[in-house]
Amino acid sequence: MRYCSNRNVVFSCKYHVVWCPKYRRKVLVEPIDRRLKQVILDLLVEKNADPIEMEVMPDHVHLLVGCDPQYDIHRLVRLIKGRTSAILRHEFPELRRRLPALWTNSYFVATVGGAPLAMVKQYIENQKRI
Question: Would residue 15 show up in a list of annotated catalytic residues for this protein?
């Protein structure tokens, strides 16, 4: 297990996050899914979060991320959803026509402590094969 640290804390916090487009519409297809992944990765690097695994399905997104416990996971998810919505709706006008907002207000998040990290990572990697 790899530990990270900041000035105050040594930590290993991993989160499995899942969120969906409004009305669970299947809009996350090429080239939108590729651009979505890039925007999320850029944002995670900007916020010093550790992208472990990510998979974009047509109607939902799985993200396995490690982040500083002092930077609230809720703030990170809210930032990801807000920025990706603004960028994708600007770059892909068809999203504005089909949806009043890109993302639902809700999301799922679980700490990855009960299951081995490799098992959760494999689960996310295998999403498209199911």
Answer: no
CATH for 13-129, among 3.90.320.10, 2.60.120.580, 3.40.50.10860, 3.30.70.1290? 3.30.70.1290
Domain ranges of the chain: 13-129
The residue annotated as part of the active site, out of 3, 15, 71, 123, is 123
Angle at 16 between CA 32 and CA 107, to 5 degrees: 65
Q: What angle do CA 102, 15, 38 make, to 5 degrees?
A: 45
pTM of the full predicted structure?
Answer: 0.85
Query: What distance in Å separates the CA atoms of residue 54 and residue 65, rounded to the nearest whole number?
Result: 8
pLDDT in tens, 85-127: 999 999 999 999 989 999 999 999 998 875 677 888 888 888 8
Cα–Cα nearest to 92, from 41, 45, 43, 25: 25
**How many whole angstroms separate alpha carbon 71 and alpha carbon 75?**
7
Q: Give yes or no for a contact between 51 and 41, defined as CB atoms under 8 angstroms apart.
A: yes
- The model's pLDDT over 51-95, given as tens digits with 9 standing for 90+, comes to 999 999 999 999 999 988 888 899 999 999 999 999 999 999 999
